[in-house]
What we know:
Helices cover 21% and strands 39% of the residues. It is an alpha/beta fold and 131 residues long. The strands form 2 sheets. The protein has a 4-stranded mixed β-sheet. The chain starts with 5 loop residues before the first strand and ends with a strand.
Amino acid sequence: xxxxxxxxxxxxxxxxxxxxxxxxxxxxxxxxxxxxxxxxxxxxxxxxxxxxxxxxxxxxxxxxxxxxxxxxxxxxxxxxxxxxxxxxxxxxxxxxxxxxxxxxxxxxxxxxxxxxxxxxxxxxxxxxxxx
Length: 131
């Protein structure tokens, strides 16, 4: 059965991105291995994912002007990533304490609690939890 294994987020540097996803968001670091670009230059293969999830995030260091321009704008300024948590308020407070930038205040909708935050690269995410 097909499933979505990885998505890519283009970042400035590997280590700050790993810290953000692992220490701030609580994701697992699945892999951090040496690798090579298609033309043979060294890079790292870095994969993180939320505990228990099947789909991971490949943290890819920008390589070249086009990729640098995509940092923080991978989905043209829209919310492109959605993090659902069991305890919205505790997660929100932990993220605020860690310095995560929220671009909206928490609010309650029919589908639950929501607030929009920026990841380390500047991409917009929805933090979602039960109402």
